[in-house]
Amino acid sequence: MKSSIILFAVVLSACVLNGCSSMDQKSTYVAPQPVSYPNGVKVETDSEYIAAVERIARRRGITLQWINLPTKRTTVASQ
């Protein structure tokens, strides 16, 4: 009985390790599509908003860490 449990555990672990080693890491990766904006639109970091939020956070004693910086879209005047 004890040997059959050990044999089952060995076979199970071999199957699991074999399945993990055969996984291709890039098989599920899909590259993000590039973002395109219409002509005359410029995307830039919203510095004024960032400064305002950080000022309020400092007053309240909150540590702030931006993960995705806020952006704003501006229209560029054509020449």
Give the helix/strand layout.
Elements: H1 2-21, E1 41-45, H2 47-60, E2 71-75
Antiparallel strand pairs: 1-2
Structural overview:
This protein is α+β, with helices and mostly antiparallel strands and 79 residues long. The chain has a domain of 41 residues. Helices cover 43% and strands 13% of the residues. It is built from two helices and two strands. The chain has a two-stranded antiparallel ribbon with strand order 1-2. It is elongated, with a radius of gyration of 27 Å.
Observed structural traits:
about 80 residues, alpha+beta, 2 helices, about 15% strand, elongated
Give the % helix.
Answer: 40-55%
Distance between the termini: 86 Å
Count of individual beta strands: 2
Structural class: alpha+beta
Short description:
By secondary structure, the protein is of the alpha+beta class. It is built from two helices and two strands; from the N terminus they run αβαβ. It has helices spanning 2-21, 47-60; strands at 41-45, 71-75.
